[in-house]
Amino acid sequence: MWQGHTSGGSMAKRSGILATAATLGLVATLLSACGSDSDDALVWYINPDSGGQAAVAKACSKELGFEITTQVLPQAAGEQRIQLARRLAAEDPSIDLMSIDPPYTAEFANAGYLAPLPDDLQQRLRDQAFTGAAAAATWDDQLVVAPFWSNTQVLWYRKSFAEKAGLDLTQPVTWDQIIQAAADNGGKVAVQSNKYEGYAVWINALIAGAGGAIATDTEKGADATIEVDSAAGDDAAGVISELASSSAAPADMSVAQEGQAGATFGGDTGAFMVNWTYIWTNYDATQPDVKKDLGFARYPQTVAGEESRPPYGGIGIGVSAYSDHEDQAMHALECLTSPENQGINAEMTGNMPSSPAGYDYPALKDIYPQELLDLFQESLDAAAPRTVSPYWSDISGALQSRFHPPSSVDEDTPADAQKFIEDVLHQRSLL
Q1: Alpha-carbon span 420 to 404, nearest angstrom
Q2: In percent, how much of the chain has pLDDT > 90?
Q3: How far apart are CA 391 and CA 225, in angstroms?
Q4: PANTHER family, from UniProt (predicted)?
Q5: Integer angstrom CA distances of residue 394 from 130, 160, 195, 197, 431
Q6: Which residue, 14, 168, 238, 265, is the most exposed by fewest CB within 10 angstroms?
Q7: What domains are there in the chain, each with its CATH number?
Q8: CB environment 263-282: b (16+ within 10 A), e (fewer)
Q9: Whole-number Å distance between alpha carbons of 132 and 398
Q10: How far is CA 173 from CA 152, 237, 302, 304, in A?
Q11: Which 3 state secondary structure label does DSSP give 176?
Q12: Which residues are within 8 A (CB) of 82 and not within 5 positions of it... i.e. 6 or more apart?
């Protein structure tokens, strides 16, 4: 949680103290360590990938006539947030551009860390983006970052297992169906349920799939309405409890992140998995037999008959409010997030474009079946972003605290989680 303006006014004071304490002893080191090789080069802080962002930086450097260099942030999204926030709290001028995970966009914008995008640029970026991508990039009715790539999850399944279980994946399926099919046939359902942001992604998708939301009225800051203790929250807790107590639960369920889920799915008991778009190429080089057996379908329904709300992830690129090259950075921003460069990045990383035009990049049609490209776009249209709030880090941390480990989730969990989230937001409890 960082400096910002809220109805109560406490956020700025409390966050300013935290930011100062976290950065005071590090400012000199950070500022000397962040510089680029050239004073004229733009520095773009990127999340780790397999070279996609560096490739588009090189392409835009050539197109625009000035150099865009990259600095790689830590692997975990939470650590990326902390490193960027520390540098920005120190008003570090060596950051020009930054890749930001959607749940932290509102926090950075509300804190004044992002340079406002010109109105005409906002309009062009909105016009090219998926509706959900633009919504995730918006705070206080302003587009504050440029959507770069938009990720979603689908249900991956082993075709041989689904056939053995007699489950028709051409029709919508529920979590209950896949858990029972896996349990009855010696398989596992792989999810992300370690105590980290990926678990909040799953909980959010389950609640949204039952017609609910974790929080509403987020413009009220800490006074947002928390809605975890609800019928939708009960449905979400029911799914988690059902899987955790089932023989379909992987042994490492309580510590599973994306990689562990992929390993479980690729093992002898692999049956079903929810995971991001990169999975399609994940087994190409290492487990071609798994790739041949890889099927895909719409994200499972929380409640039978109600459309699922797949997770939404991705990256938006923002311009630092403290950049000494703001005008150049705005030009770079538009170039980096052009549909063609979204396509280049998707080809190299498996992180799919944030615009329909990006899906027209020819190489993607050589890598992915058209029906999978269609499913990705359908899922993005239906996706449920995590709560857009400058307090998301607190909300997410409190939610994870009460829903973890998955084996502890029961009928009391939604109410316990809601109370704890409210207590944290109003400074009655600490994470």
Answers
A1: 13
A2: 88
A3: 12
A4: MALTOSE-BINDING PERIPLASMIC PROTEIN (PTHR30061), MALTOSE_MALTODEXTRIN-BINDING PERIPLASMIC PROTEIN (PTHR30061:SF50)
A5: 28, 42, 14, 11, 8
A6: 168
A7: 10-150+313-381 (3.40.190.10), 153-311+388-425 (3.40.190.10)
A8: ebbbeebbbbbbbbbbbbeb
A9: 25
A10: 18, 18, 9, 8
A11: helix
A12: none
Q: Would you tell me the crossing angle of helices 197-209 and 392-403 to the nearest 10 degrees?
A: 90
Q: Which helix (H) or strand (E) holds 43?
A: strand 42-46
Give yes or no for residue 307 having a pLDDT over 60.
yes
CA atoms within 13 A on the CB side of 263: 10
pTM above the 0.90 mark? no
From CA 6, how far away is CA 427, in angstroms rounded?
14
| Alpha carbon 202 to chain centroid, angstroms | 11
Chain mean position to CA 249: 24
Adjacent-strand bridge partners of 228: none
**Spatial separation of the C-alpha atoms in residues 105 and 390, rounded to whole Å:** 8
Name the residue among 360, 158, 349 with its Cα closest to residue 262. Answer: 158
Per residue in 172-207, pLDDT (tens digit) is 999 999 999 999 999 999 999 999 999 999 999 999
CB neighbour list of residue 193: distance below 8 Å, 6 or more residues apart: 199, 202, 240, 253, 254, 256, 404, 405, 406
Measure the CA–CA gap between 11 and 25, rounded to whole angstroms. 22
> Cβ distance 60 to 335 under 8 Å?
yes
As a whole number of angstroms, the distance between CA 171 and CA 112 comes to 46
The 8-class DSSP code of residue 277 comes to: T
Q: Are 315 and 80 in contact (CB under 8 A)?
A: no
Q: Residue 196 is which amino acid?
A: Y
Tell me the two tokens of residue 151. Answer: 């990720």
Whether 14 has a pLDDT exceeding 90, the answer reads no
List Cβ neighbours of 24 (8 Å cut-off, separation of 6 or more): none
Question: What are the residue ranges of helices labelled H in 103-244?
Answer: 105-110, 119-128, 131-136, 159-165, 175-184, 197-209, 231-244
pLDDT single digits (tens) 233-280: 999 999 999 999 999 999 999 999 999 999 999 999 999 999 999 999
In whole angstroms, what is the distance from residue 190 CA to residue 186 CA?
Answer: 13
DSSP characters for 239-271?
Answer: HHHHHHTSTTS-TTGGG--HHHHHHHHTSTTEE
Query: Residue 39: pLDDT band by 50, 70, 90 thresholds?
Result: low
Asked if residue 150 lies in contact with residue 357, where contact means CB atoms within 8 angstroms, the answer is no
